[in-house]
Amino acid sequence: MQHITINTIKTWERFYRANFINCLTGFKAVSLIGTVNANGQPNLGVFSSVVHLGSDPALIGFINRPLAAAPHTIDNIKATDVYTINHIHPTIAAQAHQSSAKYPIDVNEFREVGLTEFYLPNLVAPFVKESHVKYALSLVEIVPITHNNTFLVIGRVTDVILADNLMQADGFLALEQAESLASLGVDAYYSTQKLARYGYAKPEKPIEILK
């Protein structure tokens, strides 16, 4: 086993250090966030920091990088109060990754990377048509994280669009059937496979394996 101290980590080259730290937290859900600015210009970006915050109300958060590095998504959410989150699957993984490029503000990333905008009536934020699992959110709160100038963006789920046969009888989503991907670091994508589902854990109760 290796023991690496923070003092050693600080001596590493910037991108080497960033790769290392980004991998420490393990595999993460990776999604495309679709937004539109006040002038109707669509924007698309890839994010691996989406996190469940609560089920009632249905709250989901993501971390936006400092404004100097990633201003478009958060600025659009501030302007319209709505956005979409779209799962990535193998067929669109390369296009999704390309959306991480720093395109100018007047460029439509959907068109640039080869993905298709999809809209619901009365919802200005675009979904990714090719995504098998996608949902819309309304902005609840943007929480500044002052230590590194990032932001926790919190939204309330308003609409969900799923491919057929993903939702189980108990509400569980079989995302491996949607081929939803995970990511590691900033540039690696992984397919998923269900290992097992276990029953609700209680003291003195044997572990139950669910079908």
Q: Assign an overall shape.
A: globular
Q: What is the domain total for the residues?
A: 1
Low-confidence stretches: none
Give the terminus-to-terminus CA distance: 37 Å
| Biggest sheet descriptor | 7 strands, antiparallel
User: Which percent bin holds the helix content?
Assistant: 10-25%
CATH superfamily: Electron Transport, Fmn-binding Protein, Chain A
Average of pLDDT: 95
Q: Can you count the beta strands?
A: 14
Which band does the percent of strand residues land in? 25-35%
Over all CA atoms, what is the radius of gyration? 19 Å
Secondary-structure element order, N to C = HHEEEEEHEHHEEEEEEEE
What is CATH's topology name?
Pnp Oxidase, Chain A
- Summed up, the helix count is 5
CATH level 1 class label: Mainly Beta
- Spatial order of the strands in the main sheet? 3-2-6-9-10-5-4
Keywords: Flavoprotein, FMN, Oxidoreductase
Organism: Parasediminibacterium paludis
Cofactor: FMN
GO molecular function, one term: oxidoreductase activity
